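Write out the bound-state structure for magnesium ion.
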Amino acid sequence: MFTKVKTAAEIHSMQESGKLLATVLATLKQALEPGMSTQDLAEMAKRELRSTDGQPTFLGYYGFPDVICISVNDEVVHGIPNAKKTIQSGDIVSLDFGVTYNGMITDSAISVIAGEPKNSDHVLLVERTEASMLAGIAAAHSGVRVGDIAHNIEEQLKGYGIVRELVGHGVGHQLHEDPNIPNYGRAGSGPTLHKGMTIAIEPMATLGDHRVYIENDGWTVRTVDGSWAAHFEHTVLLTEDGAEILTQL
Ligand code: MG
Ligand code: MG
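---
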């Protein structure tokens, strides 16, 4: 389904969903420290959401077994929280979360370095990946072509591996709606997006090349070359002359 132009009521629900989501991710970022397990973080996300009217979108999505995806180091996305997986100082921890409120969905991700960074390359990887997401958002407005967003993201990630098999997407009524929003591409190409549409912009970058594979658990996406990765994502609403980020406080 191509992402629809949302009604005012649907946009309101997505704004509320996005605020809940951003609050939970901010809480997890604040709490994250070496020694915790990825399951500890997932429990915290569950607890935080329980006191609200939001539901965890990912739980049960194509059978995903938890409320949040937590991916560490060479895991790019879709990591399953695990009580045996202890976060070490210097790990790059990517938290990807989705919230449904009043039937409307938002999707957002951050990468955080636990404790002390191992080296400046890791810090730069995280910074550049976030900057590339913001560059993609800066390109978004009513009438934009998907390729314009993709091209802006790619420009910010020169020298990094850009994951190709996973991409941004329309979002709102479903977690994943058309069109795909790749993190590389040619300006002026692809479908045109209009105000009132809502999309998730989510670059995934690595310190190596772009190749990834899915682990035996059927979910966790890892880099083939073992290089570490970062992932940032916001859900945004296209407006006449820009984009409103829905998944921030
Ligand atoms: Mg996501
Ligand atoms: Mg997404």
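---
The first strand starts at residue 55 and ends at 56.
The first helix runs from residue 8 to 31.
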